[in-house]
Amino acid sequence: MRIAVIENEFGEVGVDDGLVVQANEEIFEMNNGCICCTVRGDLIRILHKLLKRKHAFDAILIETTGLADPAPVAQTFFVDDELKERVRLDAIVTVVDAAHILQHLDDTQIEEGAENEAVEQVAFADRILLNKCDLVDTEQLATITARLKAINAGAEVIETTHAAVDLRRVVGIRAFSLDRVLAEEPDFLDEGAEHSHSSSVTSVGIEAEGELDFKKVQAWLGTLLRERGTDIFRSKGILCLKGSDHKHVFQGVHMLLDFGSSADGVGRPWSPGERRLNRLVFIGRNLDREALNASFRACLATAPSASAE
Hints:
Layout: E1 3-8, E2 26-30, H1 40-51, E3 59-63, H2 70-79, H3 81-86, E4 93-97, H4 101-105, H5 117-123, E5 127-131, H6 138-151, E6 156-159, H7 178-184, E7 201-209, H8 214-228, E8 232-240, E9 247-253, E10 256-261, E11 277-285, H9 289-297, E12 305-308
């Protein structure tokens, strides 16, 4: 199966593209905005470009940012004439973090008029991948499943660890029904409908060239997530460590942090002559851009050349 992947990063610094080794997928990045609003026009342009390709794709996978409302993205396939004629929206698949979903469903800090994206994503799903089931016990899992079913009784909930799932359960399933959506949301096809993110949720991207002191990085991330982990929804980065030719990767959700490297099969090593550029993204509430940039630069083992965008 030949798949085109359209990846939307809320932050201005892309990370995931630097981890791709080789695959049958072709990846298109959309950075510095949410696919459901600010960069939606980019999505339409990329889709039109894909349709002009001589060699067709079997499927197009759109990975939205975790802050996206799926409804405007789905709407795109029904209000654009060419897309409506040539592309079928197969399914909306929502990945749920079992360890953190309840705190996001019950978030009380959302501004008036802004949406709770976690609720929207669960409600609009045709399939729900309940991931990280290994991080919760049986009782918690039952509570979470009940909450998901209370929001969306019609979506199949598939329990996973490390998002491992048979592709046949999420691709080519013909699960999306426009009639069902219109019955629940009569204004679904109204392009004038507004969508508002909480202004307190922002992203900070950091790019810095040079080698890092790994012990300092570990201490920095540990302190940062311990003190601010509740407010940091997502963190990830590609790091260049002193004395290593491997790319080192970290990924975090709130206070949970995971490290890997190209030595472990995560991404690829630095190529000869490749610029050793550290790239990090933090998404969360009330982030201090200057403080994050300055504290990260203190971890550099070489003369810093950094910017936070």
